[in-house]
Amino acid sequence: MYFNMNLHLTSVCSSSVPHELSFTRKMAPRRYTAFSSSSLSNNTSTRCFKQLPTLVAPSHRSFARSGLLPSAASAVDASNTAPTPVQKTSKCPVEKFTTVISAAAHPVLTTAMTGFAAAPSELPGPPPLSLDALKDVSIIFFEGLHVAMLRFSEKYGPVCRFANPASLNGATSWVFLNSPANIQHVCATNGRNYGRRYLPDIYTYITHGKGILGSQDDYNARHRRLCSGPFRNRAQLQRFSHVVVERSQRLVDIWTKAVREGVSGSEPCSFPPHANCSGGFTTDVATQTQRLTLDIVGLVAFSHDFRQVERVRRDIIGSAGDSRVLQDRLLWAVNTFGEVLAEIFITPLPLLRILDWVGFPHLRRLDEAVSIMRQTMLDVVQERRSALAAGLAGKDDLLQALLTARDDAGVGLSDEELWEDVHDIMGAGHETTATTTAALLYCISAHTDVRQRVEKELEDVLGGKDPSYGDLERMPYLQACAKEVMRLYPAIPVFPREALQGDVLPSGHVINPGDVVFMSSYALGRSPALWPDPLTFNPDRFSPEGEAAQHRFQWLPFGAGPRMCLGASFAQMSVCLMAATLLQRFRFTPLVPNTALIPVAYDITVNFGPSGGLHMRVELRSGRTDGGAQ
Ligand code: HEM
Prior knowledge:
Elements: E1 20-21, H1 62-66, H2 70-76, H3 93-114, H4 131-143, H5 145-156, E2 159-163, E3 173-177, H6 180-189, E4 196-197, H7 201-207, H8 217-228, H9 234-260, E5 277-284, H10 285-302, H11 312-316, E6 321-322, H12 326-343, H13 349-358, H14 361-389, H15 398-404, H16 415-446, H17 448-462, H18 476-488, E7 494-498, E8 503-504, E9 510-511, E10 516-520, H19 521-525, H20 544-548, H21 568-585, E11 586-592, E12 601-602, E13 606-607, E14 615-621
Parallel strand pairs: 3-10
Antiparallel strand pairs: 1-6, 2-3, 4-7, 5-14, 7-10, 8-9, 11-14, 12-13
The chain binds protoporphyrin IX containing FE (HEM).
Protoporphyrin IX containing FE (HEM) binds next to helix 8, helix 16 and helix 21.
Keywords: Heme, Iron, Metal-binding, Monooxygenase, Oxidoreductase
């Protein structure tokens, strides 16, 4: 998940992690909220928005169009990026109501108070104080910004505006862009004007403007440069691919052993076993892929083994986490961090400070989670600093690049700066990839024709051997499936930007300085104007001919522009390699939710909360036991 830590939750403390940890995220799914952009935070009226994605990253179809090659990826990435979606949830109905009302009425109220008219509405949108405005804002509030943007595109077309509740004189707006041509303009053609991510106050509170996700301008550009190198370089990606496959193979071994031992899993299963399979178990695959990707990001970025996959067997048999075990504590911390952050995402800074001072329980949990993650990572940093000081050979990873970086005055990064960067990479890099992989396994398995084509491609290309980086370009159908999954279930659904100066969009609509511009990969991905029969899972949309007919900016799961996801190439590679490794050995049958379209919600990233995870029966394919454990 995308988290930025480094909280200075002063007082707080001491609620300790319970011995039997509950894995809020995957095992006890929750409703989300998450990054929202903006400082809605500057105005209490915005506090209750359920989902205001705050991502901010420029992305491109880097991958999209051209497979996994880093060169292609960077071609789209206009420069540097930032990320994250935000959403926010409040359980207080009164606050929700006042938020909706005040947002709808805002332009009129501010005009009355200040004598300054609200921004001219060259852009379509609901009239202030109208029933329409109330209804529209309610969608944001109750269903999330990503859903609202889809509805707005149907109702108002490619652009629409609302008064910005945080703008006291009504001079700026929230502008929702739903057309690829306008998004191309904002992210590429005039990308410099929109280089800042719209960030809520929680970022200031947690990161003090450090890290990658929550920083802006020169600081962000420098740290993006430092951190993105290892994830773009082709030789590095190739090296990382071995780690992805090796760790996936370890998961295969543990699953194989579980099948051989007759473990049945945590979910009852009424389906008869598949022909050509020799036993299986049921499990929440999303939890297992999260453990897998945490290990992978730890190994590739910091050469550190979080040893999460070792705990997989306990998940399968339904054991609760154990706070005495570091792996379980870390997973608890990672998930709790995202969950709590989502809940307080657009809380204004002054209020956060008060809540901190009074020891608000949410902040105490956040503090606990942060200190577990922080300590884990600082131990790794310390170990590496000592090794460097002792003259031991450095490792070829991201941490090495950060440890040896020097500014013009020869000064290196402080532990605080290091921690923020490392934390962002860990957070941004693992949960997104895990949920995408789990959804990919689900979607392939829920469509028999798709599964058969994938299995045939794997057989033709791999013939039972482990996949490699080089094999991926010979597996276009698997890659198309991954793209189709990201179209329907982008891990981060919205990426907002701030306009520095006034501008005119290709559609002829006017943007004012300070306007917040929201773009949504979710709304684009499900738009009937862009994709025929958009809710149907159809990987053939990403055949070479299908892609040639698409606009470059209609598939943007990694955002676009200077704040685009910096791990896009690595993420696409990892998702496909993990899926290829697992699908060669196992067949998956969705149990819950068992619907064609997976119900999703968003906290900081996509979540399968409504269905309690992605529970599947995992069966060993006959004749595929050779790669398994003893
Ligand atoms: C399927 C997996 C992933 C998806 C869907 C995804 C998506 C995104 C999106 C939408 C953004 C915001 C983009 C924007 O504002 O234009 C973002 C930002 C970011 N992503 Fe990813 N991401 C994934 C994996 C990764 C991985 C593996 C890493 C690191 C290894 C990573 C690191 C980052 C960072 C550091 C940012 C912030 C960049 C900035 O603010 O300048 N992501 N990601």
